[in-house]
Amino acid sequence: MTATPDLGTARLASPDLLRSVFRRHAAGVAVITAAGDSGPVGFTATSLTSVSAEPPIVSFGVGTGASSWPAISESGHVGVHVLGEHQQELAATFAKSGADRFGAPTRWREGPEGVPVLDDVLAWLVCRIVARVPAGDHRIVLAEVVVGDHSGPGRPLVYHQGRFNGLRD
């Protein structure tokens, strides 16, 4: 069955409209990390995108008001971690303002270029930041892959309708 959009219910652009539309868009869940002057920083991102295969470049968005932004604005490298469905609690921790993101039970180690690398993820990358592009109240970070691993077991974590979920067949 197809549904014809009701143009009579269209709303003018607003932050609320954008949030409402993107609640309906299922997205993969990643955690972005960086080494900061006061210790490691990180946040949950659903904006991770593959940009280029040659050279290998990814992008993600980060709010300029986010607690991680000062470190990411100065850092030369970031960690990108693709989360598994078993990591809903980790995703929530890194999404929560004021949380001790790197304290127990989070397991991590210092990786290449001093970047915090999280344990037990489906895949991870360490990337060199090549650009920070202004985009409203965010920056789009472009980062070239330096090293990584895609061999973690499990199924991906997705974000949909304001909740973390496992991918279903």
From TrEMBL:
InterPro entries, A to Z: Flavin_Rdtase-like_dom, NADH-dep_flavin_reductase, Split_barrel_FMN-bd
Occurrences of domain Flavin reductase like (ranges): 22-166
Keyword Hydrolase: no
Keywords assigned by UniProt, alphabetized: Oxidoreductase
Listed Pfam families: Flavin_Reduct (PF01613)
SMART domains (UniProt xref): Flavin_Reduct (SM00903)
Name of the protein described by the UniProt record: Flavin reductase family protein
The organism of origin for this protein: Streptomyces siamensis
